[in-house]
Write a structure and sequence with these properties.
alpha+beta; Nuclear Transport Factor 2, Chain: A; Elastase, domain 1; 5 domains; 10-stranded mixed sheet; 35 strands
Amino acid sequence: MKKLTILTNALFGIAYLSPSTSFSAEIIDLDEINIETGEISQLKSLLSLEPSSELNLELTQELPDGTTKKKFSQRYNNTDIKSAIVTIHVDPQMPNRFLEAHGLVVKGLAQDLSEETSLIEPDAIKDLVITRRNLSQEQQNSIKLKRLIELDTHQQAKYVYELNFIKVENNSISRPFLVIDAKTGTLIREWEGMHHAMAPALGNGIGGNEKTQSYRYGTDFDHLSITKEGNRCYLDNDKVMTVDMRYSWNLEKEQKPYSYLCDDETNTNDRRFVNGAYSALNDAHYFGNVVYRLYQDWLNTAPLTFKLKMRVHFGYKFENAFWDGEAMTFGDGNTTFYPLVDINVSTHEISHGFTEQNSNLEYHKQSGGINEAFSDIAGEAAEFYMKGSVDWIVGADISKGEGGLRYFDQPERDGRSIGHFRDYHDEMNVHLSSGIFNKAFYLLVTRNQWDIKDAFQAFALANQLYWHEQSTFNHAACGVKRAAKDLKLEQKDVIDAFYSVGVNAICALPPEVTELELGIPLEGLQGYKGQDYYYSVSVPSGKSKLVIDLERSDYQSDNDADLFVSFGEKPTSIEAQCQSKTYENKEQCSFTNPEAGVYLILVRGYFNFKNYQLTARVE
């Protein structure tokens, strides 16, 4: 007899019965099953997905060396499965085949999802939220809802609705995200998703603020890219539109590009001075175009799938900026900030949109910290793209005091942020936990001497191809390492940078790894045919040689194991930096002038094996 538990939800006031039983859904990590190659058209069958599952092509990305990556999302009964993505490397010789595959898929969904007809209708879910949250008409009009499949903590697959809306109240703005059980109406979790922080013509005008001093577009920087009709100019082009909110809090008001009288050939706009800034309108429009060119030139893509909309002069004394899923919006600041329009913050908000339209990292816990960090990183990349140098401070130009919002070189400098995983906890604000990835990026550029363009490309490609909604720090770091490999960049530098902030960039680290001590044999090893057993050893710097020996004392021919070793990544029986598969009594891998760091060792049973010892030593 099944044990039933009655659960009650305080938000919706709905009680439901949850059977205490086992479920059939299973998450499969492709790195664990080693699918190395095959026909792209046969990928579904190679993964043994059930008939109602499909792989939907989301992105085809051509890398600088001409190779191609394809990213697929898994769907079941025409519904996206959260975090289920597969990225393949297309065979350059035979484009209908792939050479490697990474990602996660979910199998065995049919049993868990057999009662689709009993799901609550989307409109009923909206009505529940409207009633229980007492939403205004403006808030109701902003609701966005989609149905998804996700696995709960017991690995049961279920249909859910993910809903968000915009709320402007009491001179503040928020974007709540709710995940609701589609069968019971129960609130599963929620988080705050607002990411704070004609004929073409050339325009001129003032920019900057009292801290940066004024500068001129068309003189100190390039011209403004505008549109002109008769004697009327518009901060508008085919890539960016800039809107003057005129201190309104109403995001539903009609939003047209800011226009001004321009009855001569200079097309000059010097309007208007607000809170120490000479023209936040000009700055927003110029920076929006810089960000567009950054993404186009460095990533060969647009930052968003639609035209950028920059909304300026939002609210009254509003000391924030945000992305709401449709546009970037900037307040005028008050006592702490000038109008929040500088190259860092402008890029930051646009890049939240890039993340939402690619990996869609959830804006809480570890994935939220990664989300924030990517936007900070993009801000520094844009600063370098525009100025040729970076200050490694987020928002220095819009802060009325010394310093800025966050610091790459020493995240703890603000008294709240962290720069190492040991200080992280799940309740931490995502702006504070972003310091972990910010510091790793900083180390990659400064200590490992990467060009900032290369480093940004690696993080952005990981966002496009390898990260998913609920990526952890380790998973996302692995994605950066994979992107570095795709871009022919040094993977060990990525491992080293993340290791310095307590994050493991070694992909698909096995759940059970036995750590060896240098020079001390691990005796009595035994195992089974075809089974993998993993070990690790840390090698200090300055060593001339690393030797790893796998020896047996039982010399029977059917007692045999093989040795595979890689630095900084998981070795397999198919791919490893060193392989030793002899019929001798000793298997050996040696490395001359070994890199300092972690070496992973795989012992795999060729037959059932026993009475082996494993030793790692350095010279």
